[in-house]
Amino acid sequence: KNEVEQSPQNLTAQEGEFITINCSYSVGISALHWLQQHPGGGIVSLFMLSSGKKKHGRLIATINIQEKHSSLHITASHPRDSAVYICAAETSGSRLTFGEGTQLTVNP
Amino acid sequence: GAGVSQSPSNKVTEKGKDVELRCDPISGHTALYWYRQSLGQGLEFLIYFQGNSAPDKSGLPSDRFSAERTGGSVSTLTIQRTQQEDSAVYLCASSRDSAVETQYFGPGTRLLVL
């Protein structure tokens, strides 16, 4: 069992739909990161959170420390949201342990 | 520069040759990380530098891999006697400090070992 697991692996949605990507982890963490990897390969940090909820535009990230679970939500999805979304657990020494990623495709 | 830069962007080499990959972190960032993403695989941690502390090398896959960071800024990842399984995208990231800080990723170096 991987230390960080994401679901689903692949997700196809229609423009405008509400999207949820889930992340479960089995290690102790100091923070949980959500990253976006564009088709060209570039990686952008979306959120870093250690408790509660954060919001940036149409993106919302939540974390439940007791349940060791985090979710990334996208409201009013758009084709430009199509990318791979990766969650990563920051453990001791600041190293990141990554999930396998969720390939999101939003169709117009 | 405005972001993390890496060079070269692409590198093709023959099996058995040594390669050096370079990372220029964001100015003032004290923490620097190297990661690897093999084709069809997830990201994996390789090595982490924080200031003048000894680096965390626990993710290096073999003793053919080494990295250094000179003057607390530029870092070089060296792979000796490259193997085909070393083919991957090597990503560098930096952050202002260690521990619970946003990491900013470079564009990566695509390494192909023939």
What does this structure look like?
The complex is a heterodimer of chains A (108) and B (114). Chain A has strands at 4-7, 10-14, 19-25, 31-37, 43-49, 52-56, 59-64, 69-74, 83-90, 96-98, 102-107. With 108 residues, chain A is an all-beta fold. In chain A, strands 2, 4, 5, 9, 10 and 11 form a 6-stranded mixed sheet that branches. Chain A has a 5-stranded antiparallel sheet with strand order 1-3-8-7-6, with no helix packed on it. The model of chain A has no long low-confidence stretch (mean pLDDT 93). In chain B, the strands form 2 sheets. In chain B, strands 2, 4, 5, 8, 9 and 10 form a 6-stranded mixed sheet that branches. Classes of the chains: A mainly beta (108), B mainly beta (114).
Helix amount of chain B: under 10%
Largest sheet of chain A: 6 strands, mixed
| Unreliable stretches covering 5 or more consecutive residues of chain B | none
Strand element count of chain A: 11
- The H/E string of chain B reads EEEEEEEEEE
Number of helices of chain B: 0
Q: How much strand of chain B?
A: over 45%
Explain the layout of strands and helices.
The complex is a heterodimer of chains A (108) and B (114).
Chain A: E1 4-7, E2 10-14, E3 19-25, E4 31-37, E5 43-49, E6 52-56, E7 59-64, E8 69-74, E9 83-90, E10 96-98, E11 102-107
Parallel strand pairs in A: 2-11
Antiparallel strand pairs in A: 1-3, 3-8, 4-5, 4-9, 6-7, 7-8, 9-10, 9-11
Chain B: E1 5-7, E2 10-13, E3 19-24, E4 31-37, E5 43-50, E6 65-69, E7 75-79, E8 88-95, E9 104-105, E10 109-113
Key phrases:
heterodimer, A: 108 residues, mainly beta, 6-stranded mixed beta sheet, 5-stranded antiparallel beta sheet, 0% helix, 59% strand, globular, B: 114 residues, 4-stranded antiparallel beta sheet, 46% strand
Structure at a glance:
In chain A, 0% of the residues lie in helices and 59% in strands. Chain A has 108 residues and is mainly β.
